[in-house]
Amino acid sequence: MAGVQNMQKLLLTTTCQFAERSSTGIGKSRLPASAMRVVKPVMICIISLACLSLEKVSASTPAERATAQSLLNQINAAIVAGAPSVTIAPGDYRIGSSSNTILPIYGASDLTIIADGVNLIATDLKQVISFGGASNVTFRGATIDYDPLPFSQGTVVNISGSTFDVEIHDGYKTVTGNQRVIVYDQATSRVKDGTVTRYGTGITSLGNGNLRLARGNTQDALAVGDYVSITGDTLIPHGVLLQDSTNVTLQDVTLHASTTFGFFENGGGANEYHNVQVVPGPLPTGASVPRLLSSNADAFHSKNTSVGPKIIGSHFANQGDDGIAINTDFHLVGSSNGTVLEVGAKTTYDQLRFQVGDRVRGFNVDTGEVTEAIVQSITRDPSLDSGLTNIRNTYLPSAVNPLNVGYRLTLDQPLNLSPGDLIASPDRNGNGFEIRDTTVENHRARGILIKASDGLIENNLVDGSSIGGIVLAPEPFYWSEAAFTENVIIRGNTVMNTSRQFGQPGQTQVAGIAVTSDYGWVGRNHSNILIENNVVDSVAGPGLIVSLADGVQVNSNQFINTHEIYTNNGTSVAVDPTAVVWVDRASDVSFSGNTVKNLGSFGDNLLRASAATGGLSGEDTGIRLIHDEPSLTIANYRDDFQFNSPAAGWQYLWNSGGPVGDPLNYTPLVSAGVDYTSDGSSTPTPNPAAYARLGPENGHPGLGSTQGGASGIARSVIASYTVTSDGEYAIRDSFIRSETNGTELDVLVHINGDAPTHYDFIESGATASFDTGLGQLRSGDTIYVTIGPTIIDANDFFTFDFSIDMFVTAGDFNGDGKVDGRDFLTWQRNPAIGNLAEWQANYGMPLVATSATVPEPGAFLLALASVLQLGRSSILRRCTRRGMRQ
């Protein structure tokens, strides 16, 4: 009996926590106020107050409580008897309880609970099912719902200044508190682009089912006619809890609503979830508008497990927060003295979840250094609590939790830590997880949020997450959730329509896929991450963020329909929202076979890397802009560079006569043998050209606009190419990398004297692509790529490269805009250039017989070749050498 009572107490303390999920934070040094996000109000159900008082509250009838007890008796009888299975008869069961959990199941092992066709309808807003200390248990088939629902919803009927009015939909209750309000597009019932989630903004009943809410943000896209969901009443979390349970399988279990998390596992590990769902349920009685919400918070949350969950073939939609979250806790360091470490747990109910013999890692917040030791003993010491409170307030003022529940640890070896640093156990954060073939859609926050290692995220669909799609990110400074990830594969997923919430400048996770952490962290602590064969579609801002990582491979991903809308996501925390891929404070990051299609007007770069990034590879050819039609590379700067005089079509120039943008201001550079300078001599040459030069792989601009002798004009070096055929063109395979100790560079692309098609500002030490579509050009048009200083030229060396591609009709192998006999001869000399069937389809001639290597043309083509007497042109030589591509 004592064991059961202890388990009940543990279940109570671990379920009486509710906090709205978010991400922000600062390190040991405070950030300027302008960089701080507004910390959202948080509701935490404290055990001594709300939870104990709610235990006495029950809206259920005696009959409903008796039904729950009857079901529980049936399950407990099977547990006591050691039966291998128990079957609950199909049917609808309205259940309630005067306790916090309606169906608390303790100590089950080697048991299958068959609940096929069972509908459990909770009539109290409490936890429906908990498994405490279970092992080798399968729970199958149940559908779980609430009546009344734990949320409300309605239509915005009026907006006036700082408030807006909502008419509650028929069939939905009103709420007495306002914790979270999410806005939906009425036409689609999807979370509305350009809106914010509102928290704790106040709520007033206007009678007749109408509510007045404080508007808070007045700049977002909230409009009359929008739908909103509202949660706010104090509730007992969660829908289904697995507490310290191992090898439990939930199969074909559906949750239509939940007071907080849908499924929550805390401790234990190696649990599996097959075809579980958290999705909106059927229309309530008297309702005509479908439900907007499923669970009030995360659909699935895993915490402190020794082996991470397997989530297979599941579906999470319309939850109020993250789709899937896996993590453990960071704990605050109070002092470190040899092998003795004093730390603070997050709260009295979180405690320290690791055990003697577990590994513990120390994270130096100032340097990012990670050290590791083995726990030898753990002792609770209340005398440490007040000191930890002071340390928390000094070093982690933005932390949601107190972090002041003191413990004294002894370790097998010292850790290099000081007050304000953090520890976490890698043995309790869900390592070994798998998430496969699962859909997460239409919700606020992150689709999949991982803080664990040795895991697989494969073949999932994430659609409509308001912050980020798939995110690997600890949150040390705000939620105190650990940790950094190692050995994780993100493969074969489709991520769509993420990061489209209004204005998230302080958010680091705003991307289709993000590897990052809270702003202010300095260590490159993520490692060995593989991101491959994913499709990222219609994301606002970056499709991919890689930050604070060492060893990331980015292979064969597709980024589609990017940057269709404006966003300032991440701009106050060093994220560039105009880049398809943003890399910052990372090393050993490689790119191969990635493509970008339909780059929108709010995107500037395929790839951009900060000066704090090193060890990039494949930044030029590893991510490419593609088109519906195939293309031919007709020119490449490095391949075509000649020392004595430029190759046909090329010119190397500088703007001696005035600002860039007007070709009349451009003067040819002169060969100096190994490069080109203003007068053919070694640099520096006379001002304002000074160090202006172009070489086979690199260059240097002239004077900046404010330097003496510059006449107020920044002097650029310019590589230009004149096309010889009409067609649609693009710059591809481009990159520019500025010298680490230099100043900034300006990169401008323009055609003839027309307005620029691309402009970029390159910070000292940064890397960026400048791939851009050039549109339809006529023979004789000239493409100019200008690279100049800003106001000052100081060590502005750069390396760069780019190609000029022409899009062609399938079968136009020589790129002259026509599909004719010349293309067949081009293909005959190099069959790898393309598919002969495409030529045949567009030329309209029967496909000729071919051999495996050098095909024999048909009689018509032999005659055509003899009449035309065709030879290789310069463009043919380029096509043969470089080939055709998408």
Automatic annotation (TrEMBL):
Residues 429-610 form the Right handed beta helix domain. It holds the Pfam family Beta_helix. This is Probable pectate lyase C. The lineage of its organism: Bacteria, Pseudomonadati, Planctomycetota, Planctomycetia, Pirellulales.
